[in-house]
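Example complex used in Figure S2.
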Amino acid sequence: MSTFLWGVLPYLCVASLVGGTIWRYRYDKFGWTTRSSQLYESRLLRIGSPLFHFGILLVFFGHVGGLVIPESWTEAVGVSEGLYHFNALLFGGLAGVCTLVGILILVYRRRTTGPVFMATTKNDKLMYVFLVAAIVLGLWTTLVSVGAGSEAHNYRETVSPWFRSVFLFRPDVAAMAAAPIQFHIHAIVGMLLFALWPFTRLVHAFTAPLHYLFRPYIVYRSRDRQVSGSRQARPGWSGIGTTDRDRQR
Amino acid sequence: MKVMAQMGMVMNLDKCIGCHTCSVTCKQAWTNRAGTEYVWFNNVETRPGQGYPRRYEDQETWKGGWTLTNRGNLKLKAGGRVQKLLGIFASPVQPKLADYYEPWTYDYQTLIDAPLGDDFPVARPKSLITGENTKITWSANWDDNLGGSSEMGHLDPIVAKLNASVRRESEEKVRFELEKTFMFYLPRICEHCLNPSCMASCPSGAIYKREEDGIVLVDQDRCRGWRQCITGCPYKKIYFNHKSGKAEKCTFCYPRIEVGLPTVCSETCVGRLRYLGLFLYDADRVTAAAATPDEGDLYEAQLDLLLDPSDPEVIAAARRDGIPDDWMDAARRSPVYALAKTYRVALPLHPEYRTMPMVWYVPPLSPIVDVLSSQGHDAEDRGVLFGAIEALRIPVDYLAELFTAGRTDIITGVLQKLAAMRAYMRDVSLGRDGDPAIPAAVGMSEETLYEMYRLMAIAKYADRYVIPTAHVERAHELEEIGCSLDFDEGPGMYESGPFGEASGRPAPVAVETFNALKQRQTSDTAMTTTAGGELRGRVNLLNWDGNGAPDGLFPGGPPEPGTGATTTEGQR
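Predicted assembly (821 residues):
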């Protein structure tokens, strides 16, 4: 079981993430969007969305720090295990709470605002389940660690080595198996979330427009070299509005 | 100097009757789809009025367009690149649906399904956003014809600006008393700017300006729906498709322009007020021109960008920069260049946004003429008109805020030219000799004034639309080819799929059908005898050119015993 969870599943998820992203990019560029619902409702979004997004960015960098940087490196620059842990729990916890509050506002908004709820697909709902679960479970590991005080489990001796070993194609199954249950569940849900990622609206994160900082303001482009006049029907040309009312009935 | 070509439009506002035909045909062609119900690529506003979306010109609220930094550089009014990226998770300045309007339909089904009863069934309005019953309180032209009235007029950002302004010498405020009221219509499409702030705002770089004709488009495959362009555009002419999650905008009907047809709004314009043609401009100087320190000089700076296509130096540079000769020819015949630069009667809308808009407007003389004729004056007399242009400050001030960033002298000059044309041509059309003093008073020659009159008043179709066709390597395919599957018994035969007519994937429709149809309709020979050969299988009356009776036009009669008899019958 351990071998499957920590030796096989990660690769399945990575395959789904990479392969799915490439497939989606090639076949569904038109569907690659944030699908913003700000036009429908913006008051709650103004609070919830930045809270969630900035929170999750911090959480992401925290994970990178915790999982990728080996414990020996931080100790080499004089950061003791206790100090590291204290900081990780404090800032990680704060970022996690921001993220959770943000997403709860967003989910509440999505459920209670009529047009936003109607624009929510099954795909979105599934994604929300995994996303919220991953965040909640992550906070749970933090809480357990805080509760345990100095006896807290040092995940940088179990989870982190395993995480790095996965990318070296020599998965250290035993290390991960030694971690407590809350880390196991969080990791599994996280992996599944990444497996699901390319097939949901989360793909917009992969096209975060950082190149905006560097590109010229005015973009010139040559006309598409295709037969002038006749064009294939494009997506986005579905008929006006009766489907909404059909759904109501 | 880098010469680039730009398709431009001029609208002669004196001719706009506010019929909204352009808006309706545009909507039918482009935004009659889910997600774009509230979107009007073309809309007609009554001015003074709030416009669509409401009060979009109030850039202190909406942060559209450019502004200058302390050092005199251009900067997006909504903020720099870092600031924009930080605000990306919930776009800080974004019109809500209520600023446009909540689109609706009617529950027509009730009219059919209602059980028999004493009461007449009513089709109730249903929101196209929520699907619920709704109350219609606003729309894209809700204040149509209410412009200038006391009820709505004060909501116009320009009126508010005028009333607050210290620039005006007269103490008089814009009031909306009946005898002082004025209004005119302002049709608006995307300006296809030379320095578009929507493009500069797009984090994904999905909005681009076409090198060939300057049309500004959104790449639907690269747009990620960050919505910064909607903030960036000061004209609010980029819209968010809430179903697809992508930005959409006026395309200048590029599939039609490419084959030499005018845009849908121009083609269907009842007042024939739109002109289409080419501008040549110097792309190297655009940014510098947009950064002109004084707002009042922006109009002149923009005019300076336009290059004279008859100038040998420009011709040489254009050839070097790959502009084809037939495009140069079209540029020389361009009606928009003539109106904007030669006669200097067309003005850009809100040059102070520093986007260098390429849809120009001939300001209306009608607010002044209306006042004069309602007071019993001769509104075609030069002296009366010129005097009125000086005296009726408020319409002039208002137009100046719209078209020249407050420079009333420019507006006055244009209106005087229009007045001179009116006064001069009255003499001519009454059979009297034209008074050469009239054109001289506005700095024009009699010939130029007459040419301007031909272009603006007679406005023949061929003079209004000078559109060079796009150059494609596969030019022979420009002729109508139909679908390659349309061979006999092929899957595309009769353009219907396996589940009956119109099922399956839609076959691409060539715009050239229009040209081919026109050619057939104006030719003298029947379609069946032309090179096109037989009609395919059956007759479509919509395509029938009225020449001859193609096979299958009439259903076959009962079988006759002798075929020879019917032939003689028919010949007699």
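The first strand of chain B starts at residue 3 and ends at 12. The CA atoms of residues 110 and 543 of chain B lie 36 Å apart.
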